[in-house]
C-alpha cells in the first residue's frame, strides 16, 4: 500500500512539473502574439516580475511592464524555450530555470537575443498553473548588422 501511495505522489509531482513546463511555452506564445491580456493572465494576481527595467508586482504592473517594453522594441519576435530544469519545491510550487532564444524582425533591422528565466509556478489549481514569480535575465540582445562577436561585446 505504501508503494502505491508513493507512486501516486510521484505521479502528481510529475504532472505538476509538466504543467509548469507547459506554462513556459504558453508564455512564449503569448509574448510572441504581443498580447498584454494573454501574458498577464499567466501570472498570479500577486506575482512578481523582475527584469532589467525593474521589479513589478501584481498583474496590472506586469501588464504595464510588457506594454512599455513592446513600445520601446516594436519588432515581431519568436521565443524559443530551451533546457528547462524543473524541481518541485512543494506540493503547490514548481521552480523552473530555462534558457531562451529569440529572433525578430522589425521594419529596419533583424534582432536576436538570448538569456534565462528563473520562475516559480503555482500549480495548486489542478486546472491552471500560473507564475508566482519570474526573473528574466537577458544575456545578449543585438541586431544582425551589429552581430555578437566577442571583441565587440561590452563586459
Per-chain topology:
Elements: H1 2-33, H2 36-40, E1 43-51, E2 54-57, H3 58-72, E3 76-88, E4 93-105, E5 110-122, E6 130-143
Parallel strand pairs: 1-6
Antiparallel strand pairs: 1-2, 3-4, 4-5, 5-6
Characterization of this structure:
Helices cover 34% and strands 43% of the residues. The chain is α+β, with helices and mostly antiparallel strands. It has a six-stranded mixed beta sheet, with helices on one face.
Q: What's this, in brief?
A:
This protein is α+β, with helices and mostly antiparallel strands and 155 residues long. It is built from 3 helices and 6 strands, in the order ααββαββββ.
Rg, rounded, reads 17 Å
Number of helices: 3
Structural class based on helices, strands and sheet pairing: alpha+beta
Mean pLDDT score, rounded? 93
Protein name: Nuclear transport factor 2 family protein
Domain SnoaL-like: 12-126
Pfam families: SnoaL_4
InterPro entries: NTF2-like_dom_sf, SnoaL-like
Quickly list its features.
34% helix, 6-stranded mixed β-sheet, 3 helices, elongated, 6 strands, alpha+beta, NTF2-like_dom_sf
